[in-house]
Structures are given as C-alpha cells and as structure tokens.
Specification:
The chain is α/β, with parallel strands linked by helices. It contains 15 helices and 19 strands. Helix 3 crosses helix 4, helix 6 packs across helix 14 (403-420) and helix 14 packs parallel to helix 15. It is globular, with a radius of gyration of 24 Å.
Length: 485
C-alpha cells in the first residue's frame, strides 16, 4: 500500500521529500533538438506534488528542466522544492561568471532565490573550484542562494570544503546496490558533519527493475542516456550475468513484500544512516510511477532482506575509487564513456612558462613566489621538481586547522603544477613532508597514502617549525616524467 511520503530536514527550516524526482531525463527527451512543451511538462510535475512528492532535482545542462520548473512554480500554490546544479566548463572563471550563472537559474526558475544550488568541479588539481565555491557562498550571504550543496564530490574534497569554512548542506553522489562507494568513507563524513547525502542512480537508470529480469544484455545503441550510463556501471561491476543474480534477489524480496524491485533497491539505500534522500528519474509527460513511488514509504526491509541484498552485492566487483571519480579519471562511467558530452578540452591548471634554455616553470600566484623569487615547479628534461608547498590559495589558508584537509589540498596543488608541465601524479618518485605538530604525522601520512599509495614514491617526514602560524604541513616533490605523460 502507498505510504505517507517521508520528509527530512536537509537544513534548518528546509525540508524535502525523501524521494526526489530527477529531471535529467528532460535532456534525453530533448536530445534531438525539440524542446518539451513547458506547460504540459509542468502539468506532470503538478501530479507528483499533489501526491506529496514535492522535491525536484535538475541542473543548468538538463535541457529545459529549469524552464519547466519555473513554469510550474509560476502557477502552483505549492511551488515545491527546486534543487538545481551549476556545472561550469573547466577553465577560467570570474566572480561575475558565477553571479551570472546563479541569476540565470533564478530567472529560469521564476524565483527570487535558489532553494539548493549544487556545484560540480571537474578537476581538483585546478584550484579554481574553490574560487567558485567561495563566490557562491558570497551569493548565499546576499540572499540569491538559500542553501549551498555539492554534486559528485569525493570524501577528501568535501572534507576540504567543510574545513575551509564553506557552509555545505548536501552532497549528491551515485549510490546503489551496484555502486557502494559511499559506504567506504563518505557516509561517515556526512554523519559526523551533518551534511545530507542525496543518492542518485539508485535504480540504475531503470535497469534495476522487472523489465530487465532474465532479459539479454542490451547494446548501447538505442538506449537512453541514463540506461547507457548505468550499463557501463554494470559492466564495471562484473557484467550482465552477475547483474542478473542481483535482479533475482531483488525480485524475490519484492515479491515477498508485494512491491516493486525499484522500491526494494531504493529502500536499501535510504535506510543507510547519513542518506537524506534518493533521486529517481522522471520522464515528464511520458510515464509516471507515482503510486509505485509512494509504496516505497510503506516498505520496511528486515535483517534477512538486508543480509541477502548485501551478500549479493558483495559478489559484484567494486566500482573503483571514491564518489564522483567516474567524471575525473578512467574508466569514465558516463553515458558516452568519456567526457565529450560535457566539454571539448581540459585546460591546464596553470600556464607554464619557458625561458629558451629548455626549462619550463609554473607560478601559482601565491605572494611568496614573487617575494621569494621562486617557481612552484620547474621542469628540465624529463625531471620536474616542486617547491615546498603549503595549503595556500591566493590570500587564503585552505583546510583551516585540519591537517588532513591541508594535506589533500597541497597534493592537489602539486598535481596541478606537475600536470601543467606535462607530467602526472603517477610520475612522482620522491616526496618530503614537514609537519608543525608531530601529533599530525599519522593524519598527514594517511592522506599521503590515500592519494599516492598507488605510486609508492620514496618519502621522508620530519617535524619542522614552518613559516606561517596557520600552516600545519608542507610538502615538496620530485617527478620523473614517463613516456605515458
């Protein structure tokens, strides 16, 4: 039987439904160039709201989704909760660019502010992602944004943002029986900081449903963008046969509870502490699963159900990396299998400078580089050496008083310098770490291991009286560029 739609306070005074309707499908429905009729699509949104499903998730690049939401909000007595995203192309960005993006979303949504603005960063080695977030926080203070969230952030960089004083309400990431990456570290961080996790991909673009039980593996051609994306996840998780075993378990449990397989998959995710809501796709004006969506809230899984689901999921191959890595490194588990759907090129984090002697260098713009007369990194031949680097960006100390957060940002900055000189993080052969407080040695070492454990460079760590009272750790590095750079 349909249950009462559960709601959660995502932030003080801001409630959302625990099942959010995702409007990514609008872009898929419009990919041949024809826009949906906004008023007709708004009618479909109204049917969800009338059923208590009042929360919608969209983005600046989801076709006309923001315009449709604006058409609905303009005429609805209850405007619902509209969550949107800003996903800028990689490269230079200004404070004016950020304001223009926010004002454009406000205009499309026909509102005076954005309920929740979620930000996506393509490359952490380019520190401009932090500029964007600090500027967004300024717009939040100005009243243009009610709450600020993230999308597809990994654990380390959510930690950096929080430790740097950014007021983050939520992080939206992929989480399902196929993709359990949030259970490694992300959920612990969300629980300890009060950040709400918004889980998408919970029904794998509709693949975790009765339609695919016992069906042959589809080919990518002819699938929706969502189906294409999650078929890549299934292949990465062990393939179609292993996936069929998961579907069989889901089907058994669904039949026992007289509900759908999609609801079982969603309930399994929703029951994890730290998860605020699940996001399921809606093809406005084409299909509606309102009654079945509401049955999610009458479903309770017992310990036996969870044990069976966990055991079947354990048999799958783990999706590699942390949350959001599918957008930042191979294998790119996206609709197209690469990032061509999103942008044409990835600019360098910093502009290298050559001096005619065969050397190249990178300046990252910190005050001390100009005062002290040194480069962040220098390349000569196939060797790159990186100066001692602290958690400095412009006039800010990134990571606050948290040694782990400072260390992760330092590694990002070093990676950005090496990338800009034609190398990779994997080319590092030597690192040296300096900690102000010896009690931070383990946190710093663990962060080094998380980021460079697959590289295993030679390493030294010592305690030192660092220049600058706010700096807890400093790192220098040497790299030997391989033929793969």
């Amino acid at each position: 039987m349909p249950g009462v739609v559960e709601r959660v306070e995502l932030a003080p005074g801001f409630e959302i439904a625990r099942l959010v309707l995702g409007l990514w499908q609008v872009a898929d429905m419009e990919r041949q160039g024809a826009r949906l009729d906004a008023e007709h699509a708004a009618d479909a949104m109204g049917a969800y709201v009338d059923a208590g499903l009042t929360t919608f998730d969209m983005a600046d690049h989801y076709g006309s989704a923001e315009d449709i939401a604006g058409a609905f909000r303009a005429r609805a007595q209850h405007g619902g909760e509209m969550l949107t995203k800003w996903v800028p192309r990689p490269g230079p960005v200004t404070r004016q660019d950020v304001r223009a993006a926010v004002e454009r979303a406000i205009e499309r949504l026909r509102s005076d502010r954005i309920d929740l603005l979620q930000f996506h960063a393509w490359r952490y080695a380019d520190p401009r992602w932090l500029d964007c977030l600090f500027w967004l926080q300024e717009l939040k203070a100005d009243g243009l944004i009610r709450h600020l969230g993230l999308t597809n952030f990994d654990t380390a960089h959510l930690h950096i943002a929080l430790s740097s004083g950014l007021d983050i309400t939520s992080n939206q990431v992929c989480f399902s029986l196929i993709d359990r990456r949030p259970t490694a570290r992300m959920l612990d961080l969300c629980r300890s900081t009060g950040v709400g996790l918004l889980a998408y991909g919970t029904v794998a673009g509709g693949l975790l449903t009765e339609r695919w039980l016992g069906a042959p593996e589809p080919i990518l051609d002819g699938l929706t963008w969502s189906e294409s994306k999650y078929l890549r996840f299934i292949r990465a998780a062990g393939g179609w046969d292993a996936f069929q075993s998961l579907l069989c378990t889901l089907n058994d449990i669904a039949r026992r509870h007289n509900t759908s397989m999609a609801n079982v998959a969603c309930r399994w995710v929703l029951d994890h502490p730290g998860v605020s809501a699940v996001i399921v796709g809606a093809r406005l004006g084409e299909t509606s699963h309102i009654d079945d969506n509401r049955r999610l809230f009458g479903l309770q899984l017992d310990d036996t159900d969870r044990a069976r689901l966990n055991a079947t999921a354990d048999a799958l191959t783990a999706i590699p990396g942390d949350c959001g890595d599918e957008y930042r490194r191979p294998p790119f588990l996206t609709a197209t299998g690469d990032l061509s759907q999103h942008f044409d090129e990835m600019p360098l984090p910093f502009a290298p400078d050559t001096d005619g002697t065969g050397s190249a260098r990178v300046i990252t713009g910190t005050t001390w580089e100009s005062v002290g007369g040194f480069s962040r990194a220098v390349r000569r031949g196939d060797r790159i050496v990186v100066s001692g680097t602290t958690a400095t960006h412009g006039d800010r100390v990134i990571g606050g008083s948290d040694a782990t957060a400072q260390m992760h940002f330092i590694i990002d900055k070093i990676e950005g310098a090496i990338l800009s000189l034609g190398g990779r993080l994997e080319d590092i052969i030597r690192t040296r770490l300096y900690v102000r407080r010896i009690e931070d040695w383990e946190a710093v070492t663990r962060a080094h291991g998380q980021r460079l454990g697959h590289v295993m460079p030679a390493n030294t760590l010592v305690q030192a009286n660092l220049v600058g009272a706010d700096y807890l750790v400093e790192m220098e590095a040497e790299a030997q560029v391989s033929g793969n750079a």
